[in-house]
Amino acid sequence: MPWWRRARLEADLDRELRAHLELEAEELRDSGVPEREAAFAAQCALGNTTVIKEEVRTMWGWTNALRSPRYTSKSSTTFCDSPATGPKPVAYSVTVSPGDTVSTGWEFASNRSASPVPLRNDEINLLRRHRQQLRRHPAHRHRHSSHAGGQRRSAGGGGGIRQAAAP
Amino acid sequence: MTNEPQDRVELIQGTLDMLILRTLLFGPAHGHQIAKHLQRTTDNVLQVEHGSLYPALHRLERKGWVVSKWETPDKEQKREFKYYRLTPAGRKQLATEESKWKQMAAAIARVMWPAEES
Q1: Engineering a disulfide at A74: which of A113, A130, B3, B84 sits with its beta carbon 3.0 to 4.6 angstroms away?
Q2: What is the ipTM of this complex?
């Protein structure tokens, strides 16, 4: 699918979800809920928009191992159930082998849903291929030689998914 | 009267598509309207997270059972919503799903209340 068609579909989905949130918040405000609470409640009723978008993208056949909802928080129901503790931003990164990590992005997740997820073999292979391609890239070689590899090396052992608290 | 959250039940997998198709039988509707309709008609018993509707709607569209178009609800409103409409193929699918659902419900009923059935 051409990039412009993808961009249009993405924008369309974004607009659709925004319209839903606005209408829900508007209805709540009309029923007497204060502005800020209405927006929060509307978001809770809809759920985690990142997860919804990922699910729709999966439907379009655009998903890949790193964008899989397995690596994002389950839903904002958890997030909305415990407003006192609040959601914690969690960075997900995958350790392919000692020394190489690939960030898979940021996601708000509760403590309960932010448990490490084991990787499947095909996902590990995909990440290995990605790492090999990166290593062949001249910019990557230059960066590694200038840093002498010291700072980028992780203390962890073998492959697996790693979760780090937000700064 | 609406049900308390603990009385709510999770939607059986696969039934959401059928419920959406049935809702669209009344006419075109956007996601929010469908969510509200399901909530109202089931008296809040079925726990349908609004967000789960969108992947389902896009799936139905991909299968050709619904079509969508951005429209304004009326002339007074400027805001547009994405309205979903049932296609002839969607109507056919709804009839199939309905028939399957009736068969399944009858089978479960025969197990649950054998005396009453006989």
Answers
A1: A113
A2: 0.83
Domain assignment present for residue A14? The answer is no
Host domain of residue A114: 47-165
d(CA A149, CA A143): 9
With CB atoms and an 8 Å threshold, state whether A60 touches B62. yes
Residues from chain B contacting residue A46 (CB–CB below 8 Å): 49-51
Residue A114, min C-alpha distance to chain B (Å): 20
- What amino acid occupies position B13? Q
Tell me which residue in A12, A19, A58 faces B79 most closely, judged by beta carbons: A19
pTM for the predicted model, two decimal places: 0.62
DSSP code per residue over A41-68: HHHHHH--HHHHHHHHHHHHT---GGG-
Question: For A32, left (φ over 0), alpha (ψ -120 to 50), or beta?
Answer: left
CATH of B5-117, one of 3.30.365.10, 1.10.600.10, 1.10.10.10, 1.10.3720.10: 1.10.10.10
Give the minimum alpha-carbon distance from A68 to chain B in angstroms, rounded to a whole number: 14
List, for residues B78-108, the tens digit of each pLDDT value.
889 999 999 999 999 999 999 999 999 999 9
The domain tally of chain A equals 1
